[in-house]
Design a protein that fits this description.
single chain; about 325 residues; alpha/beta; Rossmann fold; N-(1-d-carboxylethyl)-l-norvaline Dehydrogenase, domain 2; 2 domains; eight-stranded mixed beta sheet; 12 helices; binds nicotinamide-adenine-dinucleotide; 3-hydroxybutyryl-CoA dehydrogenase; 3-OHacyl-CoA_DH
């Protein structure tokens, strides 16, 4: 089965970016949401992604020239032109227009009939997912793969809602999908080998703005792989802040300059959202029934105070 058209359900933070990634890879994409407002929000986010990537691509040569001149080398106009020519990006306005044309926005699930792969990226709520999965079961013919992007719900439970459970799988992207290459591929107890292999091979052939997409196979366990390591690490940073082991800035600096992290754990919590971080921690604590996953009280206080990070303008830091 060759994948040519891809359906994405939910035009939110993840869905819009996944739709863009697939169109960037040359696929026709059908993006569905519940109302025009949400669909337009998704369209605007895709516009933003494309404009920011254009700006980034066009700015590369000027940054290189600046870097060389900072080293004390005076470049001639000719040399600068040569650098601009060499680093000329293939990501142009024409390419952006082509990508934009591949994304079709709709409020109708019927559009999904044309698709060989559908990625569900709606609200993280089992009832919402159930309704979508059942609806798609009534439309699809059992050849397409239905993949959920859920961060925490059971893929085996969700697969039971689908008329063709052997064609159901979980593809867990990282935010933002158009630059972060990892996708955790999680099969349910019902997923067929064929579905798993087709999914792995499809994702292995994708690329994003930085390079190849990296699918990895992960067993169905709460938090999968990345969140099970990353979120408890963020949680520990909140414990340490609460114990006044160091200031927030110093905790972040320590992990950046001592552990090579591009962003400190508290900065990361503000970016991901303190509510999301707390919810994941709570799920890990409940599911594993292990005290090592106990959510920090300070993390909970930030969440209760509505200081959720960048999205509310205030979290550990102010924005
Ligand atoms: N945000 C992240 O960092 C992140 C990372 C990995 C996975 N996820 C998962 O991805 C999924 C989506 O998360 P998000 O952050 O993009 O959420 P979001 O709230 O930004 O977007 C969800 C979108 O789904 C739409 N929607 C809801 N019900 C629908 C329906 N019945 N049909 C069509 N569209 C519907 C909503 O209108 C909204 O636009 C969740 O399952 C979440 O756990 C999120």
């Amino acid at each position: 089965m060759e994948i040519k058209e891809i359906g994405v359900v939910g035009a939110g933070t993840m869905g819009a970016s996944i739709a863009y990634l697939m169109a960037f890879n040359g696929y026709e994409v059908h993006l569905v949401d519940i109302n025009d407002e949400m669909l337009n929000r998704g369209k605007m986010n895709i516009e933003k992604i494309m404009q920011s990537q254009l700006k980034f691509s066009n700015g590369r040569s000027e940054k290189e020239i600046e870097k060389i001149e900072k080293l004390g080398v005076k470049l001639t106009d000719e040399q600068k032109e040569q650098i601009r020519k060499t680093l000329k990006s293939s990501y142009t306005d024409e390419v952006v227009n082509l990508i934009a044309k591949r994304i079709h926005y709709s409020l109708k699930y019927d559009e999904m009939k044309k698709c060989q792969l559908i990625i569900e990226a709606a609200f993280e709520n089992i009832d919402v997912k159930k309704e979508i999965i059942q609806k798609l079961g009534g439309i699809m013919d059992g050849k397409a793969i239905l993949a959920s992007n859920s961060s925490s719900l059971s893929v085996t439970q969700m697969s039971k809602f689908y008329r063709y459970p052997e064609r159901f799988i979980l593809t867990h992207f990282f935010n933002p999908p158009y630059t972060l290459p990892l996708v955790e591929i999680v099969r349910s107890m019902e997923t067929s080998d064929e579905t798993f292999e087709q999914t792995m091979s499809f994702f292995s052939a994708l690329k994003n703005h930085r390079g190849p997409v990296k699918p990895i196979s992960v067993k169905e366990v709460p938090g999968f792989l990345v969140n099970r390591i990353l979120v408890p690490m963020i949680n520990e940073a909140f414990f340490m802040l609460d114990e006044r082991v160091a200031s927030a800035r110093d905790i972040d600096s320590a992990m950046k300059y001592g552990a090579g992290m591009p962003m400190g754990p508290l900065e990361l919590a503000d970016m991901v959202g303190i509510d999301v971080t707390y919810d994941v921690m709570k799920i890990l604590y409940e599911e594993y029934a292990d005290p090592k996953f106990r959510p920090s009280n300070l993390l909970k206080m930030y969440r209760n105070a509505g200081k959720l990070g960048r999205k509310t303008g205030k979290g550990v830091y102010s924005y």
